[in-house]
Amino acid sequence: MIEPIVVGLVLIGLIAMGAPIFLALGASGLLGLWMARGPIAFFFAPTSFFGQLNAFELIALPLFILMGNLLGATPVGQNLFRAAALWLQWLRGGLAISTVGASAVFGAVSGVSVAGVAAVGSIAVPQMLSRNYGRRLAAGSVASSGALAMLIPPSVPFIIYGAVSGVSVGALFIGGIVPGLALALALSVYIYIRVRLNPDEAPRETGPLPPLSERVRALGGIWHALALIFIVLGAIYTGFATPSEAAAFGAAGAFFIAAAVFRVLTFKKTIAILASSAKISGAILLIIGCAKIFGDYLNLVRVPEIVSEALIATNLPDWAILLVLMLALVLLGMLVDAVSLIVVTTPILLPLITAMGYDPLWFGIVLVMNLEIAVVTPPVGLNLYALRGVCPMLSVEEIIRSVVPFVFVQFAMLMVFVLFPELSLWLPSIL
User: Fold this and answer.
1) What residue segments make up the domains of the chain, in order of their start?
2) pLDDT by residue (tens digit) across 402-425?
3) Residue ranges of the chain with pLDDT lower than 70?
4) pTM of the entire structure?
5) Helix crossing, 21-37 with 41-53: angle to 10°?
6) Distance separating alpha carbons of residues 274 and 69, to the nearest angstrom
7) By the 8 A CB rule, do 367 and 329 touch?
8) CA quadruple 219, 222, 224, 226: dihedral positive or negative?
9) CA atoms of 132 and 35, how far apart (whole Å)
10) Alpha-carbon distances, residue 186 vs 101, 179, 195, 406 (angstroms)
Protein backbone atom coordinates (compact mmCIF):
# COMPACT_ATOMS: atom_id res chain seq x y z
CA MET A 1 0.00 0.00 0.00
CA ILE A 2 3.04 2.29 -0.21
CA GLU A 3 2.24 3.37 -3.78
CA PRO A 4 -1.12 5.08 -3.01
CA ILE A 5 0.55 6.94 -0.13
CA VAL A 6 3.29 8.20 -2.47
CA VAL A 7 0.70 9.26 -5.06
CA GLY A 8 -1.35 11.03 -2.39
CA LEU A 9 1.70 12.90 -1.13
CA VAL A 10 2.58 13.97 -4.68
CA LEU A 11 -0.96 15.29 -5.17
CA ILE A 12 -0.88 17.23 -1.89
CA GLY A 13 2.63 18.52 -2.63
CA LEU A 14 1.71 19.81 -6.09
CA ILE A 15 -1.38 21.58 -4.71
CA ALA A 16 0.69 23.07 -1.87
CA MET A 17 3.20 24.42 -4.40
CA GLY A 18 0.40 26.21 -6.23
CA ALA A 19 0.11 23.91 -9.24
CA PRO A 20 -3.24 24.07 -11.07
CA ILE A 21 -5.59 21.46 -9.67
CA PHE A 22 -6.00 19.72 -13.05
CA LEU A 23 -2.22 19.38 -13.36
CA ALA A 24 -1.89 18.03 -9.81
CA LEU A 25 -4.61 15.43 -10.41
CA GLY A 26 -3.38 14.40 -13.84
CA ALA A 27 0.32 14.18 -12.91
CA SER A 28 -0.26 12.24 -9.68
CA GLY A 29 -2.71 9.90 -11.42
CA LEU A 30 -0.27 9.28 -14.27
CA LEU A 31 2.52 8.61 -11.76
CA GLY A 32 0.31 6.10 -9.96
CA LEU A 33 -0.62 4.30 -13.19
CA TRP A 34 3.05 4.17 -14.19
CA MET A 35 4.04 2.74 -10.80
CA ALA A 36 1.26 0.12 -11.06
CA ARG A 37 1.42 -0.81 -14.76
CA GLY A 38 4.64 0.63 -16.18
CA PRO A 39 4.85 2.39 -19.59
CA ILE A 40 1.37 1.22 -20.61
CA ALA A 41 0.15 3.98 -18.27
CA PHE A 42 0.81 6.45 -21.10
CA PHE A 43 -1.92 4.64 -23.03
CA PHE A 44 -4.35 4.34 -20.11
CA ALA A 45 -4.15 8.01 -19.11
CA PRO A 46 -5.32 9.63 -22.38
CA THR A 47 -7.97 6.92 -22.76
CA SER A 48 -9.33 7.80 -19.33
CA PHE A 49 -9.17 11.53 -20.05
CA PHE A 50 -11.05 11.49 -23.34
CA GLY A 51 -13.38 8.71 -22.25
CA GLN A 52 -14.62 10.83 -19.35
CA LEU A 53 -15.16 13.90 -21.54
CA ASN A 54 -16.99 11.86 -24.18
CA ALA A 55 -20.21 12.01 -22.13
CA PHE A 56 -23.36 13.45 -23.66
CA GLU A 57 -24.41 14.93 -20.30
CA LEU A 58 -21.37 17.23 -20.30
CA ILE A 59 -22.73 19.13 -23.32
CA ALA A 60 -25.05 20.86 -20.87
CA LEU A 61 -22.13 22.21 -18.85
CA PRO A 62 -20.85 24.97 -21.17
CA LEU A 63 -24.40 25.83 -22.23
CA PHE A 64 -25.62 26.41 -18.67
CA ILE A 65 -22.47 28.40 -17.90
CA LEU A 66 -23.12 30.53 -20.99
CA MET A 67 -26.73 31.01 -19.89
CA GLY A 68 -25.62 32.18 -16.46
CA ASN A 69 -23.04 34.58 -17.87
CA LEU A 70 -25.55 36.07 -20.31
CA LEU A 71 -28.08 36.63 -17.53
CA GLY A 72 -25.35 38.06 -15.31
CA ALA A 73 -24.90 40.84 -17.86
CA THR A 74 -28.58 41.84 -17.53
CA PRO A 75 -30.53 43.50 -14.68
CA VAL A 76 -32.42 40.23 -14.02
CA GLY A 77 -30.80 39.71 -10.61
CA GLN A 78 -31.48 43.31 -9.58
CA ASN A 79 -35.08 43.09 -10.75
CA LEU A 80 -35.62 39.92 -8.74
CA PHE A 81 -34.30 41.56 -5.60
CA ARG A 82 -36.35 44.72 -6.18
CA ALA A 83 -39.58 42.75 -6.67
CA ALA A 84 -38.98 40.62 -3.58
CA ALA A 85 -38.07 43.68 -1.50
CA LEU A 86 -41.26 45.53 -2.50
CA TRP A 87 -43.49 42.59 -1.61
CA LEU A 88 -41.70 41.85 1.70
CA GLN A 89 -41.17 45.43 2.86
CA TRP A 90 -43.76 44.95 5.63
CA LEU A 91 -41.70 42.16 7.22
CA ARG A 92 -38.86 42.90 9.64
CA GLY A 93 -35.69 41.76 7.94
CA GLY A 94 -37.58 41.75 4.65
CA LEU A 95 -34.61 42.95 2.60
CA ALA A 96 -32.39 40.13 3.85
CA ILE A 97 -35.15 37.57 3.27
CA SER A 98 -35.70 39.09 -0.18
CA THR A 99 -32.04 38.40 -0.89
CA VAL A 100 -32.60 34.70 -0.19
CA GLY A 101 -35.65 34.58 -2.48
CA ALA A 102 -33.98 36.49 -5.28
CA SER A 103 -30.86 34.31 -5.08
CA ALA A 104 -32.98 31.14 -5.18
CA VAL A 105 -34.82 32.25 -8.32
CA PHE A 106 -31.66 33.56 -9.96
CA GLY A 107 -29.99 30.26 -9.17
CA ALA A 108 -32.76 28.51 -11.07
CA VAL A 109 -31.82 30.40 -14.23
CA SER A 110 -28.04 30.41 -13.88
CA GLY A 111 -26.84 27.31 -12.01
CA VAL A 112 -23.69 29.19 -10.92
CA SER A 113 -23.48 30.48 -7.35
CA VAL A 114 -20.84 33.13 -8.00
CA ALA A 115 -23.06 34.71 -10.66
CA GLY A 116 -25.92 34.92 -8.16
CA VAL A 117 -23.75 36.58 -5.52
CA ALA A 118 -22.51 39.15 -8.03
CA ALA A 119 -25.91 39.87 -9.59
CA VAL A 120 -27.95 40.08 -6.38
CA GLY A 121 -25.25 41.24 -3.98
CA SER A 122 -24.26 44.29 -6.00
CA ILE A 123 -27.64 45.87 -5.24
CA ALA A 124 -28.81 44.02 -2.10
CA VAL A 125 -25.88 44.88 0.17
CA PRO A 126 -25.85 48.65 -0.60
CA GLN A 127 -29.64 48.72 -0.17
CA MET A 128 -29.47 47.01 3.21
CA LEU A 129 -26.60 49.17 4.46
CA SER A 130 -28.39 52.34 3.36
CA ARG A 131 -31.37 51.28 5.50
CA ASN A 132 -29.17 50.61 8.55
CA TYR A 133 -29.19 46.82 8.38
CA GLY A 134 -26.36 45.12 10.25
CA ARG A 135 -23.28 44.69 8.08
CA ARG A 136 -22.86 41.05 9.05
CA LEU A 137 -26.51 40.26 8.34
CA ALA A 138 -26.26 41.91 4.92
CA ALA A 139 -23.05 40.12 3.95
CA GLY A 140 -24.02 36.73 5.39
CA SER A 141 -27.44 36.63 3.75
CA VAL A 142 -26.00 37.36 0.28
CA ALA A 143 -22.98 35.05 0.45
CA SER A 144 -24.91 32.08 1.87
CA SER A 145 -28.02 32.37 -0.30
CA GLY A 146 -25.91 32.64 -3.45
CA ALA A 147 -24.89 29.04 -2.84
CA LEU A 148 -28.47 27.94 -3.51
CA ALA A 149 -27.64 28.01 -7.23
CA MET A 150 -25.57 24.86 -6.70
CA LEU A 151 -28.60 22.89 -5.51
CA ILE A 152 -31.61 24.42 -7.23
CA PRO A 153 -31.72 23.15 -10.83
CA PRO A 154 -30.26 23.67 -13.34
CA SER A 155 -27.14 22.93 -11.30
CA VAL A 156 -23.63 22.64 -12.74
CA PRO A 157 -22.44 20.36 -9.87
CA PHE A 158 -25.31 17.95 -10.60
CA ILE A 159 -24.19 17.76 -14.23
CA ILE A 160 -20.64 16.91 -13.14
CA TYR A 161 -21.78 14.32 -10.60
CA GLY A 162 -24.08 12.74 -13.18
CA ALA A 163 -21.21 12.44 -15.65
CA VAL A 164 -18.92 10.84 -13.06
CA SER A 165 -21.44 8.52 -11.38
CA GLY A 166 -23.77 7.63 -14.24
CA VAL A 167 -26.83 8.87 -12.32
CA SER A 168 -29.47 10.59 -14.45
CA VAL A 169 -28.93 14.36 -14.54
CA GLY A 170 -32.67 14.88 -14.92
CA ALA A 171 -33.34 12.86 -11.76
CA LEU A 172 -30.69 14.87 -9.92
CA PHE A 173 -32.34 18.11 -11.03
CA ILE A 174 -35.70 16.91 -9.71
CA GLY A 175 -34.11 15.67 -6.49
CA GLY A 176 -32.50 19.05 -5.83
CA ILE A 177 -35.80 20.95 -5.76
CA VAL A 178 -37.01 19.96 -2.27
CA PRO A 179 -33.62 20.38 -0.52
CA GLY A 180 -33.06 23.69 -2.33
CA LEU A 181 -36.42 25.12 -1.28
CA ALA A 182 -36.02 23.72 2.25
CA LEU A 183 -32.63 25.35 2.61
CA ALA A 184 -33.95 28.68 1.31
CA LEU A 185 -36.78 28.46 3.84
CA ALA A 186 -34.36 27.59 6.66
CA LEU A 187 -32.14 30.59 5.85
CA SER A 188 -35.21 32.86 5.76
CA VAL A 189 -36.51 31.54 9.09
CA TYR A 190 -33.06 32.01 10.65
CA ILE A 191 -32.93 35.62 9.42
CA TYR A 192 -36.42 36.32 10.80
CA ILE A 193 -35.63 34.83 14.22
CA ARG A 194 -32.29 36.66 14.29
CA VAL A 195 -33.80 40.08 13.62
CA ARG A 196 -36.63 39.46 16.08
CA LEU A 197 -34.05 38.78 18.76
CA ASN A 198 -31.80 41.64 17.62
CA PRO A 199 -34.07 44.35 16.18
CA ASP A 200 -31.15 46.74 15.68
CA GLU A 201 -29.86 44.52 12.84
CA ALA A 202 -32.96 45.19 10.74
CA PRO A 203 -34.88 48.38 11.55
CA ARG A 204 -38.56 48.24 10.69
CA GLU A 205 -39.50 50.13 7.53
CA THR A 206 -41.23 53.43 8.16
CA GLY A 207 -43.83 55.08 5.98
CA PRO A 208 -46.65 53.56 3.95
CA LEU A 209 -46.23 50.36 1.99
CA PRO A 210 -45.63 50.74 -1.75
CA PRO A 211 -48.89 50.87 -3.69
CA LEU A 212 -50.13 47.63 -5.18
CA SER A 213 -49.65 48.96 -8.70
CA GLU A 214 -45.93 49.47 -8.07
CA ARG A 215 -45.54 45.97 -6.67
CA VAL A 216 -47.35 44.47 -9.66
CA ARG A 217 -45.13 46.44 -12.08
CA ALA A 218 -42.10 45.03 -10.28
CA LEU A 219 -43.34 41.52 -11.05
CA GLY A 220 -43.41 42.53 -14.70
CA GLY A 221 -39.65 42.97 -14.52
CA ILE A 222 -39.01 39.33 -13.63
CA TRP A 223 -41.22 37.53 -16.12
CA HIS A 224 -38.15 36.86 -18.26
CA ALA A 225 -36.52 34.82 -15.50
CA LEU A 226 -39.72 32.95 -14.68
CA ALA A 227 -40.30 32.16 -18.37
CA LEU A 228 -36.76 30.83 -18.71
CA ILE A 229 -37.19 28.61 -15.64
CA PHE A 230 -40.42 27.26 -17.10
CA ILE A 231 -38.82 26.54 -20.48
CA VAL A 232 -35.67 24.86 -19.17
CA LEU A 233 -37.06 22.86 -16.26
CA GLY A 234 -40.40 22.18 -17.91
CA ALA A 235 -38.65 20.69 -20.94
CA ILE A 236 -36.65 18.37 -18.67
CA TYR A 237 -39.41 17.28 -16.29
CA THR A 238 -41.97 16.62 -19.01
CA GLY A 239 -39.48 14.52 -20.96
CA PHE A 240 -39.68 16.88 -23.94
CA ALA A 241 -35.91 17.41 -23.86
CA THR A 242 -32.81 16.00 -22.20
CA PRO A 243 -30.88 18.29 -19.83
CA SER A 244 -28.37 18.97 -22.61
CA GLU A 245 -31.10 19.94 -25.06
CA ALA A 246 -32.83 22.04 -22.41
CA ALA A 247 -29.53 23.81 -21.76
CA ALA A 248 -29.48 24.83 -25.41
CA PHE A 249 -33.01 26.25 -25.01
CA GLY A 250 -31.82 28.07 -21.89
CA ALA A 251 -28.75 29.57 -23.55
CA ALA A 252 -30.83 30.72 -26.52
CA GLY A 253 -33.46 32.17 -24.17
CA ALA A 254 -30.82 34.00 -22.13
CA PHE A 255 -29.33 35.44 -25.32
CA PHE A 256 -32.78 36.66 -26.40
CA ILE A 257 -33.38 38.26 -23.00
CA ALA A 258 -29.99 39.98 -22.99
CA ALA A 259 -30.06 41.08 -26.63
CA ALA A 260 -33.71 41.80 -27.39
CA VAL A 261 -35.37 42.52 -24.03
CA PHE A 262 -32.70 44.43 -22.12
CA ARG A 263 -30.50 45.28 -25.14
CA VAL A 264 -27.30 45.12 -23.13
CA LEU A 265 -25.27 43.08 -25.60
CA THR A 266 -22.79 44.81 -27.82
CA PHE A 267 -20.52 42.89 -30.15
CA LYS A 268 -17.58 43.44 -27.79
CA LYS A 269 -19.54 42.32 -24.72
CA THR A 270 -20.89 39.24 -26.52
CA ILE A 271 -17.38 38.16 -27.47
CA ALA A 272 -16.23 38.74 -23.88
CA ILE A 273 -19.10 36.61 -22.51
CA LEU A 274 -18.40 33.81 -24.98
CA ALA A 275 -14.68 33.92 -24.15
CA SER A 276 -15.35 33.87 -20.40
CA SER A 277 -17.80 30.97 -20.74
CA ALA A 278 -15.32 29.00 -22.85
CA LYS A 279 -12.54 29.66 -20.35
CA ILE A 280 -14.61 28.53 -17.36
CA SER A 281 -15.98 25.49 -19.21
CA GLY A 282 -12.52 24.50 -20.41
CA ALA A 283 -11.07 24.75 -16.92
CA ILE A 284 -13.84 22.57 -15.46
CA LEU A 285 -13.55 19.99 -18.24
CA LEU A 286 -9.76 19.81 -17.75
CA ILE A 287 -10.30 19.10 -14.05
CA ILE A 288 -12.93 16.44 -14.81
CA GLY A 289 -10.71 14.70 -17.37
CA CYS A 290 -7.57 14.73 -15.21
CA ALA A 291 -9.53 13.65 -12.14
CA LYS A 292 -10.71 10.64 -14.14
CA ILE A 293 -7.06 9.61 -14.57
CA PHE A 294 -6.57 9.90 -10.82
CA GLY A 295 -9.83 8.05 -10.12
CA ASP A 296 -8.94 5.20 -12.47
CA TYR A 297 -5.65 4.75 -10.62
CA LEU A 298 -7.49 4.58 -7.29
CA ASN A 299 -9.85 1.95 -8.72
CA LEU A 300 -6.91 0.02 -10.15
CA VAL A 301 -5.30 -0.36 -6.72
CA ARG A 302 -8.70 -0.95 -5.05
CA VAL A 303 -8.63 2.12 -2.79
CA PRO A 304 -12.45 2.52 -2.84
CA GLU A 305 -12.94 -1.12 -1.84
CA ILE A 306 -10.33 -0.86 0.92
CA VAL A 307 -11.92 2.30 2.32
CA SER A 308 -15.38 0.72 2.20
CA GLU A 309 -14.24 -2.48 3.92
CA ALA A 310 -12.37 -0.54 6.59
CA LEU A 311 -15.35 1.65 7.47
CA ILE A 312 -17.83 -1.21 7.41
CA ALA A 313 -15.47 -3.28 9.60
CA THR A 314 -15.69 -0.63 12.33
CA ASN A 315 -19.25 -1.87 13.03
CA LEU A 316 -20.37 1.72 13.50
CA PRO A 317 -24.04 2.39 12.79
CA ASP A 318 -24.77 3.81 9.37
CA TRP A 319 -25.62 7.26 10.73
CA ALA A 320 -22.23 7.49 12.45
CA ILE A 321 -20.37 6.55 9.27
CA LEU A 322 -22.41 9.10 7.32
CA LEU A 323 -21.65 11.78 9.91
CA VAL A 324 -17.93 11.09 9.59
CA LEU A 325 -18.16 11.26 5.81
CA MET A 326 -20.12 14.53 5.87
CA LEU A 327 -17.62 16.16 8.23
CA ALA A 328 -14.76 14.95 6.06
CA LEU A 329 -16.41 16.36 2.94
CA VAL A 330 -17.00 19.71 4.64
CA LEU A 331 -13.34 19.87 5.69
CA LEU A 332 -12.19 18.89 2.19
CA GLY A 333 -14.50 21.52 0.73
CA MET A 334 -12.63 24.15 2.74
CA LEU A 335 -9.44 23.27 0.87
CA VAL A 336 -10.49 21.94 -2.55
CA ASP A 337 -12.77 23.50 -5.16
CA ALA A 338 -16.22 22.03 -5.76
CA VAL A 339 -15.51 20.43 -9.14
CA SER A 340 -12.40 18.64 -7.90
CA LEU A 341 -14.17 17.44 -4.78
CA ILE A 342 -16.93 15.81 -6.83
CA VAL A 343 -14.70 14.06 -9.33
CA VAL A 344 -12.13 12.87 -6.78
CA THR A 345 -14.38 11.72 -3.92
CA THR A 346 -17.24 10.19 -5.91
CA PRO A 347 -15.27 7.14 -7.19
CA ILE A 348 -14.01 6.52 -3.64
CA LEU A 349 -17.19 7.03 -1.64
CA LEU A 350 -19.92 5.89 -4.01
CA PRO A 351 -19.06 2.15 -3.66
CA LEU A 352 -19.29 2.55 0.12
CA ILE A 353 -22.62 4.36 -0.13
CA THR A 354 -24.12 1.67 -2.37
CA ALA A 355 -22.67 -1.10 -0.15
CA MET A 356 -24.52 0.47 2.79
CA GLY A 357 -27.74 0.30 0.77
CA TYR A 358 -28.15 3.99 -0.03
CA ASP A 359 -29.25 5.41 -3.37
CA PRO A 360 -26.52 7.05 -5.53
CA LEU A 361 -29.10 9.72 -6.40
CA TRP A 362 -29.44 10.63 -2.72
CA PHE A 363 -25.67 10.74 -2.30
CA GLY A 364 -25.36 13.16 -5.20
CA ILE A 365 -27.85 15.49 -3.53
CA VAL A 366 -26.15 15.50 -0.12
CA LEU A 367 -22.74 15.82 -1.79
CA VAL A 368 -23.88 19.02 -3.50
CA MET A 369 -25.33 20.23 -0.20
CA ASN A 370 -21.81 19.79 1.18
CA LEU A 371 -20.48 21.90 -1.66
CA GLU A 372 -22.94 24.65 -0.75
CA ILE A 373 -21.20 24.87 2.60
CA ALA A 374 -17.78 24.75 0.91
CA VAL A 375 -18.37 27.79 -1.31
CA VAL A 376 -19.05 30.00 1.72
CA THR A 377 -16.26 28.58 3.90
CA PRO A 378 -12.71 29.97 3.78
CA PRO A 379 -10.11 29.68 2.40
CA VAL A 380 -11.55 28.43 -0.92
CA GLY A 381 -15.06 29.83 -0.47
CA LEU A 382 -15.47 31.54 -3.83
CA ASN A 383 -18.69 33.30 -2.79
CA LEU A 384 -16.78 35.22 -0.12
CA TYR A 385 -14.39 36.72 -2.65
CA ALA A 386 -17.12 37.27 -5.24
CA LEU A 387 -19.05 39.33 -2.67
CA ARG A 388 -15.90 41.29 -1.80
CA GLY A 389 -15.43 42.03 -5.50
CA VAL A 390 -18.89 43.59 -5.98
CA CYS A 391 -19.09 45.15 -2.48
CA PRO A 392 -15.70 46.78 -1.77
CA MET A 393 -17.16 48.48 1.31
CA LEU A 394 -16.96 45.07 3.05
CA SER A 395 -13.64 43.57 4.13
CA VAL A 396 -12.85 39.89 3.57
CA GLU A 397 -12.51 39.36 7.33
CA GLU A 398 -15.93 40.95 7.89
CA ILE A 399 -17.51 38.71 5.25
CA ILE A 400 -15.92 35.58 6.71
CA ARG A 401 -17.24 36.36 10.20
CA SER A 402 -20.68 37.10 8.79
CA VAL A 403 -21.18 33.68 7.18
CA VAL A 404 -20.33 31.56 10.23
CA PRO A 405 -23.89 31.36 11.68
CA PHE A 406 -25.32 30.77 8.21
CA VAL A 407 -22.90 27.84 7.74
CA PHE A 408 -24.29 26.25 10.92
CA VAL A 409 -27.82 26.57 9.51
CA GLN A 410 -26.71 24.94 6.24
CA PHE A 411 -24.97 22.09 8.08
CA ALA A 412 -28.07 21.47 10.22
CA MET A 413 -30.18 21.17 7.07
CA LEU A 414 -27.56 18.89 5.53
CA MET A 415 -27.85 16.51 8.47
CA VAL A 416 -31.65 16.48 8.16
CA PHE A 417 -31.39 15.22 4.58
CA VAL A 418 -28.56 12.83 5.49
CA LEU A 419 -30.55 11.19 8.30
CA PHE A 420 -33.84 11.16 6.36
CA PRO A 421 -32.97 10.24 2.74
CA GLU A 422 -36.61 9.87 1.76
CA LEU A 423 -37.05 13.67 1.99
CA SER A 424 -34.94 14.18 -1.12
CA LEU A 425 -36.04 11.03 -2.96
CA TRP A 426 -39.83 11.25 -2.82
CA LEU A 427 -40.16 13.86 -5.59
CA PRO A 428 -37.98 11.94 -8.11
CA SER A 429 -39.93 8.79 -7.23
CA ILE A 430 -43.24 10.30 -8.25
CA LEU A 431 -41.91 12.12 -11.34
Assistant:
1) 1-54+284-300, 55-265+301-430
2) 888 999 999 999 989 988 888 888
3) 1, 110-115, 205-207, 304, 335-337, 379-380, 431
4) 0.81
5) 140
6) 9
7) yes
8) negative
9) 61
10) 12, 10, 14, 10
